[in-house]
Amino acid sequence: MKLREYRAQRPMRTFYETIQFYHPSFGNIHLVSLQIEPKVLGGVEYQPCNFELAESQQSKTPIIDASVKFSRVAQDFKQQLKLWRSNTRMKPIIATFRLFDSADKDSPISEWSLYVKDCSLDAESVTVTLSMNNPLNKNIGRIYTMEEFTGLETV
């Protein structure tokens, strides 16, 4: 069978790119790209939202960082970020990307989770930077103990 014949006979499948944001202050937000109506994938209803995902440029390595650009949802992001305040900021926001196939909508083809490192908003679009490292663990000083630093006992 030639490649052209194979392509003519194979079923047309749709791939669904989804992203989930989770934080205890605002719960789960499930979004699916390039759809008009909500979709039920893996038993969860995903809301339609156009976004572009740019993965890290390294080849043959796991996803260590990514960038997600959302169009025309700046006000919605601002409202959700207002819920993220006071002591709830001590826990990171987790973003989980899932890729579903229309042939099997119950289980994702691929899935990976990253931490939200940065979120920049302008008048219409939102760009979310994702990272493998928890951003809340950055720039934290070392805890000084009496056993390690004996000079602290005299202070």
Structure description:
With 155 residues, the protein is mainly beta. The chain has a single domain, classed as Pnp Oxidase, Chain A, CATH 2.30.110. 10% of the residues lie in helices and 39% in strands. It contains two helices and nine strands. It has helices at 3-9, 74-82; strands spanning 15-23, 27-32, 39-41, 44-48, 51-55, 65-70, 94-101, 110-121, 126-131. It has a nine-stranded mixed beta sheet. A hairpin with a 3-residue loop joins strand 1 (15-23) and strand 2 (27-32). The radius of gyration is 21 Å and the shape is elongated.
- For the biggest β-sheet, the strand order reads 3-4-2-1-7-8-9-6-5
Tell me the structural class: mainly beta
By CATH, the architecture is named Roll
Q: Spell the H/E element sequence.
A: HEEEEEEHEEE
Could you estimate the helical fraction of the residues in percent?
10-25%
Q: What is the CATH top level name?
A: Mainly Beta
Tally of helical runs: 2
Mean pLDDT over the full residue set: 81
- Beta content comes to 35-45%
| Rg over C-alpha atoms, rounded to the nearest angstrom | 21 Å
Task: Quote the distance from N terminus to C terminus.
Answer: 83 Å
Q: For the report, how would you describe the main beta sheet?
A: 9 strands, mixed
- What is the approximate shape? elongated
Briefly summarize what is shown.
The chain is mostly beta strands and 155 residues long. It has helices at 3-9, 74-82; strands spanning 15-23, 27-32, 39-41, 44-48, 51-55, 65-70, 94-101, 110-121, 126-131.
